Amino acid sequence: MSEWWHIHLAQPWWLLLWTTIPLLAWWLYRNKQRYFAHIRLPSLQGLHTHSWRSRSVWLPWAMRAVAVALLIFALARPQRELKEEKVKAEGIDIILAMDLSSSMLARDFKPDRLEVSKKVAADFVDKRTYDRIGIVAFAGEAFMQCPLTTDHRVVKELLAQLECGMLEDGTAIGMGLATAVNHLKDSPAKSKVVILLTDGVNNAGYIQPDVATAIAKEYHIKVYTIGVGSQGEAMTPVSRRSDGTYIFGLARVEIDEQLLRQIAQQTGGRYFRATSSSALERVYEAIDKLEKTEIEVTILHRHTEVFYAFAGIAIALLALELLLAHSLWRSIP
User: By C-alpha distance, which of 140, 146, 196 is closest to 169?
Assistant: First the structure.
């Protein structure tokens, strides 16, 4: 109910019509003989002059007056106002660097590593209300899937479109990190972060991970690295058929954890290992808590029209008054 305290009238001059309501009431009172039947009797003995109908004969007129008042108020265009205010919020530039190598289709996560990684990343995006977020995809090469934006609907749509096979197969960790750094280096944000998720070992790309790490450190870009995959062996794509479908087989899960730790340590971030869906969710929750930078955000005011509510009540009152006037309070003639 508190939202109704913020009512603003776009055209308040219509309220001047309210002054006509008392005048109309006075005119009706002066001319009530025209509207209320009366009979002169020598005596009132034996007549019940104080019935509920006689006591409430004014009610239809009162309902009509209230309805007219509400219609006039609706003409003034009442609007619910959300005022402009400045609030303290958390805003960071974040690039999600996602591994799209074929091993991300491994089935140690249900349904596979990539689908779980996309879902958990989308949940993370929902929590970062004021952040600019972008997406870099990498496999044997890397590209920018989504530039930095505050339109998180677009971020999640493009995140959902990531698929293995979009790029040449392989795991170019250095390329993925370098592409993310290249899009963050000129950002004016005080805090710049890369969340790099991979399930393998660097085996492709012409930019080595140590070079990309040095560039990230130079531009004060913090890198959180995530190694995703269970311990031991997992059902993983081992080859492809002529029609492009994958053949799965048991293969050892190999993640270069030492490299991922070095990238994180040298840039001021942290390395996480996620061996299950729930573990990956906890990783993103931990990163969400670690990355808090306070900024000032201006929220602009806007108006929502609410005149239809008052007009609707007025029309309902008029309809009810019309019904009662021709039934319970019917007059003669």
Answer: 140
Residue type, 166: M
- Cis amide leading into 111 (omega within 30): yes
pLDDT digits (tens, 9 = 90+) for 300-313: 556 677 777 777 88
Report the SS3 class of residue 242: coil
**Nearest in space to 330 (alpha carbons), one of 9, 72, 23, 53:** 53
Residues 6+ away with beta carbon under 8 Å from 203: 170, 171, 172
pLDDT tens digits, one per residue of 230-267:
989 999 999 888 888 899 999 999 999 999 999 999 99
Whether the Cβ atoms of residue 251 and residue 232 lie closer than 8 Å to each other: no
Q: Any idea what DSSP says for residue 325?
A: H
Q: How far is CA 227 from CA 3, 118, 123, 239, in A?
A: 47, 14, 19, 23
**Total Cβ atoms within 10 A of residue 266:** 14
What is the residue extent of each domain of the chain?
2-83+302-325, 87-297
Name the phi and psi angles at 226, rounded to 5.
Answer: -130, 120
Instruction: Take residue 304 and report the two structure tokens written for it.
Output: 């929502």
Q: Which residues pair with 313 in a beta bridge?
A: none
Contact yes or no for 128/288 (Cβ under 8 A): yes
Are 240 and 260 in contact by the 8 Å Cβ rule? The answer is no
pTM: predicted TM-score of the whole model, two decimal places: 0.65
Structure-token pair, residue 188: 């004016």
Closest CA to 225 of 209, 208, 243: 209
**Which of 3.40.50.410, 3.40.630.30, 3.20.20.110, 2.60.370.10 is the CATH number of 87-297?**
3.40.50.410
Structure tokens at 232: 């031991």
* DSSP annotation string for 197-225: EESS-----SS-HHHHHHHHHHTTEEEEE
How far apart, in whole angstroms, are the C-alpha atoms of residue 195 and residue 259? 15
